[in-house]
Amino acid sequence: MADHQESSVTLPSDPASVAAARRYVAEVLGEWGLPDESETADTVRLIVSELATNAVQHTRGQSPTFTVDVRLERGEWLRVGVTDSHPRHPRRLPAAVQQDNGRGMVIIRWLAAEAGGRLSVTPTEDGGKTVWIALPWTVVAATAAPTGC
Hints:
The protein is an alpha+beta fold. 31% of the residues lie in helices and 27% in strands. It has helices spanning 16-31, 39-57, 104-114; strands at residues 4-12, 65-73, 77-84, 118-123, 129-136. Strands 1-2-3-5-4 form a five-stranded antiparallel sheet, covered by helices on one side. Helix 1 runs antiparallel to helix 2. The longest helix is centred in the first third of the chain and has 19 residues, at 39-57. The protein starts with a strand and ends in a 13-residue tail after the last strand. The model is unreliable at 140-149 (pLDDT under 50).
């Protein structure tokens, strides 16, 4: 495996793009050897859904597109980032029990921590930001078969 692999896609800030972002990342991870049915794949798909949803909903039309970056560094860390051009950084919103939203960043932080990873936010040169998750890459080689009778 290469020391560093990376892939990205830019999508319109439209609700339909959330599913497209999720499918894109799943395809890339599959190409890199992560089984689609693995717990890590499920976690990453949910995180990408939440990050893409935030990029669409919370930029209030000020970011016409968002970009999803997927990086595998030295076969040790998977980094997934969602970039938009809106200057406001994500924050926890007060979420009443009856509300259907406001919990995305809490979910993302919890999922990343549960998988042994972390979340970070970096500013972009154009005044926007990238929200990154970093997870340990723990893919077992698909060619390894159980031994024994």
